[in-house]
Amino acid sequence: MKEIEVGIAITGSGSATPANVLDNQVLCQMVETSEEWIESRTGIQSRRVASVEESLTELATQAAREAIAMSGIQPTDLDLIVLATSTADDLFGSASKIQANLGATRAVAFDLTAACSGFLFGFVTAAQFIRTGVYKNVLVIGADVLSRWVDWADRRTCILFGDGAGAVVMQANTTRDRLLGFELCSDGRQNDCLTLAFQPQEKALTPTVSVGQGTYQFIEMNGKEVYRFAVKRVPEVIEKALYRADIEVDRVDWLLLHQANQRILDAVAVRLNIPTHKVLGNLANYGNTSAASIPLALDEAVRSGKIKPGDVIAAAGFGAGLTWGAAIFEWG
């Protein structure tokens, strides 16, 4: 890619998950299904679900603290906090509360919503602030508590989702730009394939004026269409990001996909001719944690020693909107 004066380094990661574990055996007592069917169709064995006392803000704050500590900076060094979530504790946003929890008094904070693509969209958004020289230290968090919006009587969706948070610290780097390339996409024509919709109910204010009040409904998903979309579009967007990075696929050390379904992960790896040992995943233990899935899997791989400084990672998110995107970056 074209060289620029200010590059990006990814210097810290962190993650957090609720204490409660909901495994397939327990799920089978709640809905009509089997452990074998769930695992064979999704690759998921268990997932974490937040209790009534656990909030998205608390999970995100914990993940953020770990990422900040690894990066070696202080919360007061942060210039910007981007929270990617679809399940904020407050409809007006949760990023500012996280800023307060961290004591990041200098940081601007805002929420960003792009569902399961949210972390990647937040990652690329943060990069633009750094590259233009506006900010030097940025915290990007992906966090979701989808258990709040799952219909636990619907076996098509309740087997899929879990709760969690992940975070990274991105910093200005004048010696090397470690964000090598990216590509982001949206297609609103397929919006109805995956929704968490508001359902208004009419409330009359006067004989001639009414408003719609209500709440959000449970997650609705057309699984077959989402699968078809993912296995086609995700390899394409990774190839475009690789082209923008001007590197070949064989230079990729790790493939890091949104953890939605093991069959999707396998299909994308085959399409790109990336061997299984290069595919990062923790889907079996956490399920689909939406915006948290990429940074959660990244943090586990970093802390286990799998990912080392300089490793090239091809990351891709995909989900509701429909939205999808990819980023090619070096760790460290």
What does this structure look like?
There is one protein chain. With 332 residues, the protein is of the alpha/beta class. The chain contains nine helices and 16 strands. It has helices at residues 24-30, 35-42, 56-71, 95-102, 118-131, 223-245, 262-272, 283-286, 293-303; strands at 7-16, 20-23, 46-49, 80-84, 108-112, 137-145, 163-173, 179-186, 194-195, 198-204, 210-216, 220-221, 254-257, 279-280, 312-319, 323-330. Strands 1-7-6-4-5 form a five-stranded mixed sheet, sandwiched between helices. It has a five-stranded mixed sheet with strand order 8-16-15-13-14, with helices on both faces. Strand 13, helix 7 (262-272) and strand 14 (279-280) form a beta-alpha-beta unit. It is globular and about 65 Å long. The relative contact order is 0.20. The mean pLDDT is 96. Homodimer. Residues 259-263 are annotated as: ACP-binding. InterPro entries: ACP_syn_III_C (IPR013747), ACP_syn_III_N (IPR013751), FabH (IPR004655), Thiolase-like (IPR016039).
